[in-house]
Amino acid sequence: MQLEDIKTIGIIGAGTMGQGIAQVCAQAGYKTMVFDVEAQALEKARQRILQNLDKGMERGKLTNADKEAALKNLTYTGDMLQLRCDVVIEAVVERLEVKQSIFQELANINTPATILASNTSSIPITQIAAAVPNPERVVGMHFFNPAHIMKLVEVISGAATSPEVAHIIKELAGKLGKTAVMTKDSPGFIVNRVARPYYTEALKLLEEGVADVETIDKLMQASGFRMGPFELMDLIGVDTNYSVTTSMFEAFQYEARFRPSHIQQQLVNAGHCGRKSGQGFYTYAN
Ligand code: NAI
C-alpha cells in the first residue's frame, strides 16, 4: 500500500482522543468513520468536532468551505461491521484485553491489507498485535491531547510491524499536519515514560500533605510548565491517566516508581474523571 491508496480511515472510540483524531483525518480529506459502543459518545464527538471547527473559523484558520468539507467527510456509527477501511485507528480505553478483542474483530472485518493502528499511551504494540493474524500491519500511532492541536505523533513499531507499514503511518501523520517520530516498542514509549514522574510525584506530594492541588499546579506553571500536573490529569482524563500508570507499573514488574496513587484510584471509582465528567481534581461547567 502507498500513502495515495489511503482514502478511508476508521476511528474506534469517540472519546477524548478519538474525537480529535477523527477531526484531523476529516480535515485532511479522508472519508472518516467514527465508531463507538456508546451512542452518547458519538453524539458528544459530533458536537465537539463542530465546536472545534467553528472555533477554527473564528480564529481565521478555516473557511466555511473547509468546515463543510470536513463535516462531509465524517460519518458516525454504532455498527463496527461498517468499519471496512484502508486504515483503522483505535482509541478506546487503555485495557489490553479490550484492545485485543477489537483488533481481532477488525481483522475479521477487513482484508490483511488494512493497517490497524493503536493510539495506546502505554501498552506494547507487540502485545496488541499478538492477538491478530497478519501482525505486520499492526502499528502504534500515538497522538497527543488535544489531538486536533498537538503536532507530535509517536509511530511505534512492534516486534512484528513491517517497516513499510510504519513508514506509511509516518507519512500519513505528515498528511494530517503532524510531526511523526519513530520509536521502538517499550511500555509508555518515550513521552509517557519520561512524563510519568510529573504525575506520580505530584500525587505523592498530595498524599503526604506537603502541598495542595492548587499550590502544586501554580508552582509547576510558574516554573515554566504549560500546565500543572493536576490540571493536566483532568485534561487527559483521570481514569485514562490512572490506567496508563497501572499498565506501566505491571509492565515494569511492579517497580515502585510507577506505583499508581490511591487518591487517583478513588477519584476514578467515584466517576470523577476530569474535564470530560465535569469533576476531577477541579470542577468544570460542561
Ligand atoms: P476516553 O475514555 O475519553 O474514550 C474512550 C472511548 O472508547 C469511550 O467513548 C468509550 O465509549 C469507547 N469504548 C470503550 N470500549 C469500546 C469498544 N469496545 N468499542 C468501541 N468503543 C469503545 O479515552 P481517551 O482518553 O480518548 O483514550 C483512548 C486511548 O487513547 C487510550 O488508549 C489512551 O491511553 C490513549 N491516549 C489518551 C490520551 C489522553 O490524553 N486522554 C493521549 C494519548 C493517547
UniProtKB/TrEMBL annotation:
Q: Which Gene3D superfamilies match?
A: N-(1-d-carboxylethyl)-l-norvaline Dehydrogenase, domain 2, NAD(P)-binding Rossmann-like Domain
Q: Which Pfam families match?
A: 3HCDH, 3HCDH_N
Question: Site positions for Important for catalytic activity, renumbered to this chain?
Answer: 142
So where does this one cross the membrane? none
Highest taxon listed in the record's lineage: Bacteria
Q: List the signal peptide residues.
A: none
Q: Which GO terms describe its molecular function?
A: 3-hydroxybutyryl-CoA dehydrogenase activity; NAD+ binding
Q: Which InterPro entries match?
A: 3-OHacyl-CoA_DH, 3-OHacyl-CoA_DH_CS, 3-OHacyl-CoA_DH_NAD-bd, 3HC_DH_C, 6-PGluconate_DH-like_C_sf, 6PGD_dom2, NAD(P)-bd_dom_sf
Tell me where in this chain the 3-hydroxyacyl-CoA dehydrogenase C-terminal domain is found.
188-284
Q: Which UniProt keywords apply?
A: NAD, Oxidoreductase
In its UniProt record, which GO terms are filed under biological process? Answer: fatty acid beta-oxidation
Binding sites annotated in the UniProt record for NAD(+): 13-18, 36, 94, 99, 121, 145, 276
Chain ranges of the 3-hydroxyacyl-CoA dehydrogenase NAD binding domain: 8-185
Please state which protein family the record places this protein in. Belongs to the 3-hydroxyacyl-CoA dehydrogenase family.
UniProt-recorded name of the protein: 3-hydroxybutyryl-CoA dehydrogenase
**Lineage, top ranks:** Bacteria, Pseudomonadati, Bacteroidota, Cytophagia, Cytophagales
